[in-house]
Amino acid sequence: MSTAMVRIRVLLARPWIWSFLGALAVWLAAELFTGGQGAGELLTATLSFAVFMVIVGIGQMFVISTGPGNVDLSIPATIALTGAVAMKTMGGADAMILPGMLAALAAGAFVGACNYGLIRLLRIPPIIATMSANFLVMSTAIAYGRGLKVKPPPLFADFTTAQVAGIPVLAICTAIFAAVMGVVLHRTVYGRSVHAIGQNRRAARLAGVAVDRTRFLVYVLSATFAGLCGALLAGFSGGSSLSAGETYLLASIAVVVIGGTSVAGGRGNVPGIWGAALFMYLLEAMLNTYGAGAGLRLILTGLIIILVITIAGGDRPQR
Amino acid sequence: MLRGLGNPRFLRAVLPAISLAVILGAIFAVNPRTMSPIGLNLLLQLAVPVALATIAQMFILAVNDLDLSIGGYVGLVACIGATFLNTDPLLGVVLLGACIAAYAVMGALIHWRNLPSIVVTLGMLFVWQGIAILVLPTPGGAAPGWITAIMGFKPPLVPFPIVAAVVIAVVVHFALMRSSYGVILRGAGGNPRAVARAGWSLLKTKLAMYALAGLFGVLSGLSLIGLTTSAQANIAMPYTLLSIAGAILGGSEFVGGRVSPVGAVIGALTLTLATRALTFFHVPPDWQIGAQGGILIVVLALRALINRREVA
Question: What is the mean pLDDT of each run of 10 residues along chain B (312 residues)?
Fold first, then answer.
């Protein structure tokens, strides 16, 4: 066998390659239809929107990696709340951008801490705990953001929409951010602990892994990233909105799983999240260029998600 | 007898019923006029479709899966019910049968490729929603007369929603908890390997459970349009989370095999009542969604407390 063949085999064995291949296929299909016109614009738009999915997706991946049943459903409300917190703190002034960002991140971290409090102290299953928290945070966001119409500071709005040679600055920052989180996941004690807990929590505890601290940080991390996404999204779309986070409930889970992270836990994957986020947005764009109506678009999106996961295959039972 | 009352297992079993009684009592105290058959009927009406959807979710939980698509599915059934079932009953029945078959196929696919149910049902949520929009692009349609007649039925003495809830709970309880094949179905979730070694087909159990969930989803959608008389594509979207919460509130667990049909029905009633109660207690609209979350947390915290006593 030639070395090229071996390389391709090794590449195909990577769980994240499928999401990129999917994204590429969908992109080619869209370009085929338009004859290559506006290819650059489509990529720019894709990158701009994929960024937000990647940020929340990475947080969700850390949560999902800690084992079955672990998932963060409080992301939508957290995005709504932190968007409002960021905009209110910044108050449209360039000088307040940093405090505003920090306030949004702190609000997110607080939500995450509450989530784990419910899970650990009250022993509520994570799905129900984060779902209940989502309701509570949403109410807080509604009460807090009542009549809130603050525009983002000009500098912040410029930053979130800036482009260098057609590539959004935010996408470059997020790529670096994702790389750092990849190192955290695969090369640090903390990341290894997350995986160990996901593979077998009891064994991890017996091996001396600080299970509680690791799980606590995972939920805090996820909500903090939702806070980051909320603030940036508010800047990007010219203000915060209560419905800003709605689509991220399901999208955050979809990008994690399509990206090759095991839902059974213990196997996270950062590059796959990028591929999956690009794939999800390009799919929507492709169906739009083909002129598919809302109903058909939903059906095809759903079927393609199922097709991808079916081809990529599930996990073999571990025990 | 007294020792029996303090028994954690017993406490855990009656906790859903106690929370239901507390909420009902509070509503009666605030507004005594609700304590009549008509009042109860109005209070509990919407609990019937929620209870049926919760039972559907419970079947999926029993085989260790989670169904995120039930809200979209119930919406699709409502749309078919308010259009085809009314104008062309035969086609309507065939379509609803196809929906149930699609649910069974979904279960088979999950089993065959060993796929995460969360992702497959997530994809199917989009599919159901898309088909529903194609069936009924704008809100409207009309429920068949016989469905509105059934849902509007007023039995003497006891309000219809209570009769319906009891019937649903008893039928499913005996089918799933007391029949011999019910034991196999639950066992397939609790200990799949043991059930497979005993010579039962896991594929068949998965097919059966998903088909049952599809059937109860159909019943849920039809009973819903019996109350609303018309439909729209996303009429039942909150049902996904409501059904999971109701089933868990009623004592089901995420580990598979551990479910309780009676508990699920009571959980659904409690959740529906809790949302109604909030308007009675003049909770500001801003905080109504939050209060629902709060109620869930309180009840589950109580259950955790009981469980801890069991361990101790």
Answer: 62 82 88 84 89 95 90 96 93 96 94 85 92 93 91 85 91 89 85 86 92 96 93 88 86 77 91 83 82 81 76 58
The residue of chain B with its CA nearest to that of A141 is: B286
Give how far A250 is from chain B: nearest CA, Å. 7
Minimal Cα–Cα distance from A288 to chain B, Å?
A: 14
Residue A254 lies in a domain: yes
Q: Copy the structure tokens of residue A116.
A: 């784990």
If one counts the domains in chain A, the total is: 1
* Cβ neighbours, 10 Å, residue B45: 20
Residue A275, in any domain of the structure = no
Residue B290 CB partners (closer than 8 Å, separation 6+): A135, A136, A137, A138, A139, A140
**Structure tokens that stand for B273 in this block:** 């009542």
Task: Answer yes or no: do A143 and B291 touch at CB < 8 A.
Answer: no
Going along chain B from its start, the domains and CATH numbers come out as 40-280+287-302 (1.10.3470)
Q: What are the residues facing B140 on neighbouring strands?
A: B231
Specify which residues A314 forms β-bridges with.
none
Is A231 inside any structural domain? yes
Helix (H, G, I), strand (E, B) or coil at B230: coil
Residue A249 pLDDT > 90: no
| Cβ-count burial A102-139 (b if 16+ within 10 Å, e if not) | ebbbebbbbbbebbbebbeebebbbbbbbbbbbbbbbb
* Chain B residue whose CA is closest to A114: B297
Q: Which residue's structure tokens are 């709060």?
A: B294
A-chain residues within 8 Å CB-CB of B291? 139
**Chain B residues touching residue A316 (CB < 8 angstroms):** 114
- If you measure CA to CA, which chain B residue comes closest to A258? B119
Report how far residue A271's alpha carbon sits from residue A17's, in angstroms, rounded to the nearest whole number. 9
The answer to whether the beta carbons of residues A223 and A73 sit under 8 Å apart is: no
- Measured in whole angstroms, the distance separating CA B25 from the mean position of its chain's CA atoms is 23
Both structure tokens of A73: 């459903």
Q: How far is CA A268 from CA A194, B128, B220, in A?
A: 9, 30, 38
Which is nearest to A126 in space by CA: A58, A180, A72, A55?
Answer: A72
Domain of residue A194: give its range: 52-265
Q: Does residue A272 lie within any of the structural domains? A: no
pLDDT, tens digit, for every residue of A48-62? 999 999 999 999 999
Sign of CA dihedral B147, B152, B156, B161: positive
First to last CA, chain B: 21
Mean pLDDT, residues A228-238: 93
Residue among B126, B134, B290 minimizing CB distance to A301: B126
Rounded Cα distance, A202 and B250, in Å: 28
